[in-house]
Specification:
This protein has 260 residues and is of the alpha/beta class. It has 9 helices and 7 strands, in the order E-H-E-H-E-H-E-H-E-H-H-E-H-H-H-E. The chain has a single domain, classed as NAD(P)-binding Rossmann-like Domain (Rossmann fold, 3-Layer(aba) Sandwich), CATH 3.40.50.720. The chain has a 7-stranded parallel beta sheet, with helices on both faces. Helix 3 runs parallel beside helix 4. It is globular and about 50 Å long. Bound molecules: NADP nicotinamide-adenine-dinucleotide phosphate. It comes from Acidianus manzaensis.
């Protein structure tokens, strides 16, 4: 089935591993031209070299998402490398785990830059370049709908991304640019390993028992593979979703209990 993605020029942030990497891979498999990015040069080069095996139309640029000027450069220089920009997939790094009494002012400022400011800059700079038909997709978290204990940076700051998606979708609709998001639930990536270790330490129990408890609460009875999140992102970037904008889709195996 032709998804209308072949030849599209795509930037995927935070894509040396996990959800971002799986998304970049899916776009390359669909025949897009993809620029990947992250802030650890070795990891980024490894990802680039592996993806090169799928398609020669892959590029990379090292940037730190906590630095707004580097996010700006990613969009301007990245789109020059690609020869334009049709699709931005914004994924970000993982905020430090912690609760209100543990996190310092500095943690909150870093969290703000990583989770929100980078998204604002990436969306704004992409919107300046994109033409009619452009797509902006932000990968966030189910913490947007249901807070998770000891993930306060995510619980608080990511809520703003819902506002950003809604505001940008309304503002950019007249330019023919669609703006949406996904909310991954527990997904098999390095981030999950980090969270399981953190919880196991806090609650003084084995990592295995933490993992079993997480899975127990998921109606589908298992964790997500990053490719399952990537597939929903591909849908939002495809010609199948031309009347979808301003929305956030959970990809969580049914884990969010709330109806709205
Ligand atoms: N896994 C889950 O269960 C889950 C659920 C909901 C939401 N999320 C969120 O999804 C996002 C992606 O995480 P993941 O699960 O795919 O984990 P992951 O495999 O650890 O991927 C994180 C990615 O972020 C990049 N990154 C980290 N800090 C960065 C920075 N300052 N600047 C640029 N890139 C940076 C990493 O690359 P480098 O290290 O190479 O820089 C890596 O490519 C995170 O925000 C995470 O909190 C994850």
């Amino acid at each position: 089935m032709d998804l209308g993605i072949k030849g599209k020029k795509v930037i995927v942030t935070a894509s040396s591993s996990g959800i971002g990497y799986a998304t970049a891979k899916r776009f390359l498999e669909e025949g897009a031209e993809v620029l990947i990015s992250s802030h650890d040069e070795n990891k980024l080069l490894n990802a680039y070299n592996t993806l090169k095996g799928i398609s020669k139309s892959v590029y990379y640029m090292k940037i730190d998402l906590t630095k707004p000027e580097e996010v700006s450069s990613l969009i301007s220089e990245g789109s020059s490398m690609l020869g334009g920009l049709d699709i931005l997939v914004y994924v970000t790094g993982s905020p430090k785990p912690g609760n209100l009494l543990e996190l310092t002012n500095e943690d909150w400022i870093n969290g703000f830059n990583l989770l929100l400011m980078s998204a604002v800059v990436a969306v704004r700079e992409s919107a300046k370049i994109m033409k009619k038909g452009g797509r902006i997709i932000l990968s966030t978290s189910t913490t947007l709908r249901e807070p998770i204990d000891n993930l306060d940076l995510s619980n608080v700051i990511r809520l703003s991304l819902a506002g950003l998606i809604k505001s940008a979708s309304r503002e950019l609709a007249s330019k023919g640019i669609l703006v949406n998001g996904v909310m991954p639930g527990w997904t098999l990536t390095k981030r999950l390993d980090q969270l399981i270790k953190d919880r196991s330490k806090r609650e003084n129990r084995t990592e295995d028992s933490v993992l079993k408890d997480l899975v127990k609460d998921i109606p589908l009875g298992r964790l997500a593979n990053p490719e399952e999140v990537a597939n929903v992102i591909i849908f939002l970037a495809s010609s199948l979703s031309t009347y979808v904008t301003g929305t956030l889709i959970p990809v969580d195996g049914g884990n969010i209990k709330g109806i709205f």
